[in-house]
Design brief:
single chain; 647 residues; alpha/beta; eight-stranded mixed sheet; seven-stranded mixed sheet; 30 strands; 22% strand; globular; binds adenosine-5'-triphosphate; binds magnesium ion; EC 6.2.1.1; acetylation; AMP-binding_CS; acetate-CoA ligase activity; magnesium
Length: 647
């Protein structure tokens, strides 16, 4: 398959390159990976005790980075900036959904984290204990994570929309001692409730939780379990502002976080301290060209996802950056809310997901046009492949044709960005994550693990250990080995399909599980979806391979229409035929979908990723699999019914 449709590249402007924090020399330095990471670790972090060995890989695949080093994560994110005289710099501009705001300087945030650390310690939390965090997108989420880090305790953030069962599973898996939650939050203008979910999750005996700390956010009524539950404002409010951060080993566990569940049952990924912070902090400053004195960063991800860990809670603060945190939905109280926030806080770097961009495209470009977005200077994307059509829209409408876009590929498991253009150096290609970050070695290999030449599709692998790599799956070392390290000898198997183009730039092709084999041709879900999204009728598309008697697998497409598509349907046009022909023209006759099903919604995880495995279940007439992390289970019922009616 070719990318002929996307020939255009976007070289960096002279001005951007001239003012950039890093240039091509960084790529050069990254070639000696261990030396690069050793230098970087000392550069981006303050160590209490310096490390004596950069990497110990003698017990592969269990890595130890920065052996002998000791540090405190919270000290690195907070105190040291205050000590350096930057206590008055804003760390977080918080914007609540109802419009309430709070500003935390580095001095404020340091004080709050010290108090929370004292409060948690008074509840018996100490090094190595696990703390489940079930909070909305409010500053207390970041404060809680950093307070745990300060104590050497391990946080396990559970997305605030998950069910009692999902929460309980995660509390049990980690054997959490403490749960930090809130009365609730706001969603689409309505107060929501969290505490009852915690109560339900802990109803059944046999859990390890001793206390529940409750933040008062929306004033919804809560029930208290005597002796177990305490208000944040009481226990943190009354705590001392003095707390000295103890240094912990570089490999002290920092957090457990479950993957999104896009391909199956979520895995409890374990990250540790020194390596995780090093790569997060370094990629943050390089990829986003951060200037901490002047930039205002906004990552729209929830702290319940890895992006919210690495690029909200840790990397921006370790770098002393100023960031925006927003609690609510993009269309409350109106569809311009995000752009209003960009204008209000003069956001200069925006990091978001393709699903959001496609939604804004659907809402129309006249909405962002009403706001002053001239503060923006760099845009980022993460979570899925960004369809070239969406990239171009993001670039033109949000970035005014002026802001580079960095498409960053990484995973919960990788802890930090792994593939991305370096915006001062690489000519950007819409839809490609392009190149490994300095110090990381990524390859595309065939079934046997042999490197593939440019142009051939295969498996994405990571050839060498990297600092922010997962250290394991919590409590399951065998699953860690079999999931990531058994497919190819000595290499990390990412589970994603990829290929290099003629320039050696990497294109992600979708999950390996989603690669289709139609009459002996391997087809990528991502490419067919991008072709569909490139048609003016289509807002979003999900493509899967369903077993087929004649072709082995057949391409089945699920599409959400834009207004133009809906109009065409009303005019009696055979939209399915139009879209089949379009894919045939863009990619080739073999890629033409057997069925195109128009649907009002697509099944997505709560982090906004399309759940193709569920669509495959429906298309093959199976019972729909695990929907625990699905945002709206109703969507699947609707699609299953539409599918039955269409056949
Ligand atoms: P699970 O592992 O439970 O199935 P998940 O893989 O969706 O869930 P995450 O760790 O949140 O969990 O997502 C990582 C995956 O997201 C990557 O493996 C890749 O498939 C996809 N991804 C992330 N960023 C990009 C990107 N820039 N381009 C293409 N794909 C991306
Ligand atoms: Mg995954």
């Amino acid at each position: 398959m070719s990318h002929d449709a996307v020939q255009k590249t976007f070289p960096p402007s002279e001005e951007f390159t001239a003012n950039a924090r890093y240039g091509a020399e960084l790529l050069e330095e990254g070639r000696d990976a261990e030396a690069f990471w050793a230098k970087t670790a000392r550069d981006v972090l303050t160590w209490d005790t310096d490390f004596t060995q950069t990497l110990d890989w003698s017990d592969a695949p269990f890595a130890r980075w920065f052996v002998g080093g000791k540090l405190n994560a919270a000290y690195n994110a907070l105190d040291r900036h205050v000590e350096a005289g930057n206590g008055d710099r804003v760390a977080i501009y918080f914007e609540g959904e109802p419009g309430d705001t709070r500003t935390y300087t580095y001095a404020d945030l340091t004080r709050e984290v010290k108090k929370a650390a004292n409060a948690f310690a008074s509840l018996g939390v100490s090094q190595g204990d696990r703390v489940a965090v079930y909070l909305p997108m409010i500053p207390e989420a970041v404060i809680t994570m950093l307070a745990c880090a300060r104590l050497g305790a391990v946080h396990s953030v559970v997305f605030g929309g998950f069910s009692p069962d999902a929460l309980r599973q995660r509390v049990d898996d980690a054997e959490a001692k403490l749960v930090v939650t809130a009365d609730g939050s706001y969603r689409r203008g309505q107060p929501t409730r969290l505490k009852p979910t915690v109560d339900q999750a802990l109803e059944r005996e046999g859990h390890t939780v001793q206390n529940v700390v409750v933040v008062k956010r929306n004033g919804e009524p809560v029930e208290f379990v005597e002796g177990r539950d305490v208000w944040w404002e009481d226990v943190v409010g009354s705590a001392s502002e003095e707390h000295e951060a103890k240094a912990f080993d570089a490999e002290n566990p920092l957090f457990i976080l479950y993957t999104s569940g896009t391909t199956g049952k979520p895995k409890g990924i374990l990250h540790t301290t020194g390596g995780y912070l090093t790569q997060g902090a370094q990629t943050f400053r390089a990829t986003f060209d951060l200037k901490p004195e002047t930039d205002v960063f906004w990552c729209t991800a929830d702290v319940g996802w890895v992006t919210g860990h690495s690029y909200v809670a840790y990397a921006p603060l370790v770098n002393g950056a100023t960031q925006v945190m927003y609690e609510g939905t993009p269309n409350t109280p109106h569809e311009g809310r995000w752009w209003e926030i960009v204008e209000k806080y003069k956001v200069s770097i925006l990091y978001t997901a393709p699903t959001a961009i496609r939604t804004f495209m659907k809402w129309g470009e006249d909405i962002p046009a009403k706001y002053d977005l001239s503060s923006l200077r760099l845009l980022g994307s993460v979570g899925e492949s960004i369809n070239p059509e969406a990239w171009l829209w993001y670039h033109r409408v949000i970035g005014a044709g002026r802001c580079p876009i960095v498409d960053t590929w990484w995973q919960t498991e990788t802890g930090a960005q792994m593939l991305t253009p370096l915006p001062s150096v690489h000519a950007l290609k819409p839809g490609s994550a392009q190149q490994p970050v300095p110090g990381v070695e990524i390859d595309v290999v065939d079934e046997l693990g042999d490197p593939l030449p440019n142009g051939q599709a295969g498996f994405l692998v990571i050839r060498k250990p990297w600092p922010s790599m997962l250290r394991g799956i919590w409590g399951d070392p065998e699953r860690f080995k079999s999931t990531y390290w058994s497919r190819f000898e000595g290499m990390y198997f990412a589970g994603d399909g990829a290929k290099r183009d003629e320039d050696g730039d990497i294109w992600l092709l979708g999950r390996v599980d989603d690669v289709m084999n139609v009459s002996g041709h391997r087809l990528s879900s991502t490419e067919i979806e991008s072709a569909l999204v490139g048609h003016p009728y289509v807002a979003e598309a999900a493509v899967i391979g369903a077993s087929d008697e004649t072709t082995g697998e057949a391409v089945v497409a699920f599409v959400m229409l834009q207004e133009a598509g809906e109009q065409a349907v009303r005019d009696g046009e055979d939209v399915q035929a139009t879209l089949r022909a379009h894919v045939g023209k863009e990619i080739g006759p073999i890629a033409k979908p057997r069925n195109v099903l128009v649907t009002p919604e697509l099944p997505k995880t709560r982090s906004g990723k399309i759940m193709r495995r569920l669509l495959k279940d429906v298309a093959e007439g199976r019972e729909v699999g695990d929907t625990m992390t699905l945002a709206d289970p109703g969507v699947m019922r609707q699609i299953a019914e539409d599918m039955r009616n269409s056949s």
